[in-house]
Amino acid sequence: MTDNRQEELRGRLRALGFDDVRFTSTGTPLKASALTNWLDAGMHGEMAWMERTAAKRLDPTQVLEGARSVILLGVSYADDPSAQHPTTSNARRPIWARYALHQDYHDTIRPALVQAGREIETIFGATERDYRYYVDTGPVLERGWAARAGLGFIGKNAMLISREHGNWLFLAAILTRLDLVSDPPIRKKHLPPESVEGENVGLLCGKCTRCLDACPTQAFARPGVVDARRCISYQTIENKGIIPRELRSGIGSRIYGCDVCLEVCPWNRFAQKGRSMLLTAKRDLAELSLAEILELDPVRFAELFRGTAMKRVKLGGLLRNACVVAGNLGDRTLLPFVVKLAEHPLPLVRAHAVWAVFRLAGTSEAERLLSGARQREIDASVLSEYTAELPQSPARLPLPPNSSE
Asked: Where are the chain's structural domains?
């Protein structure tokens, strides 16, 4: 039976701006196999922290000694259902992941978490030592616990899908030593309770495979399992180095993150616009032309993106992504901008600018436009882009079988 104080807490947390509030117990740990198999296969790419914190992610008591419950908090960033969001790679403007068109949610949600802690102290007589909160920054598997608490279910796109908010939820978690009554997970009626813990992939997806079919870079190893190394979000945000050549065309116009596997999900037809009490929109970013982005300098970058998630990639990473988008758009008016970036101070930017010039201009013209830059180039990663784009000279072609010098 739920303690009246628990329901009072739920109400107060909703009043702070959280669109959904659910509770679950740490008594039964999350299944370890999915995470360990994913890590063992190297699908986390260069996100080494995932491996270092794996044990803590599975067992909250290693994060907060004596933790007995997890409070899961959802903040909806669903837009008005009538809003149009391009998903195709031929859009003439760069495409941003929807969440990126806000002030950094880590920063705007954190004050509400601080106040949530105060509410826990007031209602239950707890102290600061009795809880710990995170908003997508700590060693917590928020999606797994959220599914356990019934906030949603994990879909074939590996995202938490809410029946009320669709795919559009920021998640925060509060670990606490309080013994709270668990909310029930979502279950399918024809399955016995013991077979469904809330973590099961595709619980309500049925035969739908829209997310798997729509992924531009075929990043799903199987339903519910994303190989981050092939994921556009990973490549444009988490990867701090060279984006693999074989994935660049699939990135299309996506300059920061990717929402394709979320946008195609049929469950979004039930999602209503969020209250946005804990979010601050930055819709003007979506109006930036690619030329404006390719011309960014440190001062302008700081002016436009201060307080946003773009600090994750910094100016160099954003210019790298912009060069890839430019190469994919095929707009020759962008040539002067990428040619200039072929001599940018950062090799990371130069490498992708070279690729973009060859894509936009063709081999002969690109060689002419980049002749000076190539003569001055000394970085191996950039030189490899020139080599990859140029045909082999006859002297370097492999000899035919049984031939002699």
From this structure: 4-210, 288-393
